[in-house]
Amino acid sequence: xxxxxxxxxxxxxxxxxxxxxxxxxxxxxxxxxxxxxxxxxxxxxxxxxxxxxxxxxxxxxxxxxxxxxxxxxxxxxxxxxxxxxxxxxxxxxxxxxxxxxxxxxxxxxxxxxxxxxxxxxxxxxxxxxxxxxxxxxxxxxxxxxxxxxxxxxxxxxxxxxxxxxxxxxxxxxxxxxxxxxxxxxxxxxxxxxxxxxxxxxxxxxxxxxxxxxxxxxxxxxxxxxxxxxxxxxxxxxxxxxxxxxxxxxxxxxxxxx
Length: 257
Hints:
Tumour Suppressor Smad4; 17 strands
């Protein structure tokens, strides 16, 4: 599943929907549309992903490979939750002119040769098949969040971002922003008399991070040059007062820290 987070798919979805968002949307539909019978819990196995014209164009070169990745993802989710699928998982993409960039829909159904057995076991009627629309802003808060448990179960690669200040590492988790300064109320506290109480702000911007000086007395340096607001990359060196910091951003796989 590494390609769902890194590699060619990640590059294709810099500003469009990311494949991880689609994967999490599929599993959310599995969970919400599962049906409990006498002896089994059934989950949808047939998924239609509705994309905006822009997002559909972005995935076109990788569509078949992405289908296989998504099938592996939902299969692993079914195993981990002891869901029974009445047929092999299937994923198809369709283009919907009514969707905007950053929106996608998922239609989930139960289809397959076990339909008769499911009815005989007393499973509820299949009420799946409605299309749910997801938006990127909502997914960032929940659907697309990749947890350590996801990494362990599905073999995903996840991102770790940290700010290392004078040897101490501060994890940059969640949406931020993170205030840097001398005050104990800040997210990242630097005990340096040359650092202002509220010195700088580190925040997410699109698919990256930016550092912004908050009109500090001694300024903020990026690789030795004074800045007001700049995008930062892995390995960049920052200076707050007389204290040096290093921005770290890397991908880790299962079992890695």
